[in-house]
Amino acid sequence: MGASPSSPAAIREKSIHEFLVKDNHGNDVDLGRYRGKVLLVVNVASKCGFTDKNYTQLTEVYNKYKNKDFEILAFPCNQFLSGEPLTSQQAENFACERYKAEYPIFQKIRVNGPDTAPVYKFLKASKTGFLGSRIKWNFTKFLVDKDGIVIDRYSPTTEPLLIERDIQKALGEI
Q1: Residue 61 sits in which domain range?
Q2: For 14-29, what is each residue's pLDDT tens digit?
Q3: How many domains does the chain have?
Q4: Of the N and C termini of the chain, which has fewer Cβ atoms inside 10 Å?
Q5: What CATH number should be reported for the domain holding residue 107?
Q6: Which of 44, 48, 144, 163 is catalytic?
Q7: Is 48 a catalytic residue?
Q8: DSSP, residue by residue, 50-106
């Protein structure tokens, strides 16, 4: 019996640093550039009940740790009740203008189904959640260590400030 596309056996990559993603202009971004940084990877949306609290707290967490080898990688996704109807560029503008986001906001992706972005196949295979490997909703978060290995997965209802202690541990602060 063969491995399913999202099973760990089907994922050859050993770290997030082995993936290429697209910025919101369609240019390739090698995630290897984040080697040595703790990452919080999150699927974001501008029209969701979780938008205001998450974006506000993501900016707060980012501002606290951005100078301490920490980065947030945001991926707009429109798979949950059309929560992200904006284009990739509009989604970035929304986050930067309204929430003062300074972290990278990449091209819109799919996080579930047959067209799932490869980086999300890796993340989901590394840490399953309440619905198994499927992403439950907007603002599901993955904490990744400096070597590119997924440490933990957090539900959409877990506020970014509640992850702060785990970020500090991953940074070696506690």
Answers
A1: 17-170
A2: 899 999 999 989 999 9
A3: 1
A4: N
A5: 3.40.30.10
A6: 48
A7: yes
A8: THHHHHHHHHHHHHHHTTTTEEEEEEEB-TTTT---S-HHHHHHHHHHHH---S-BB
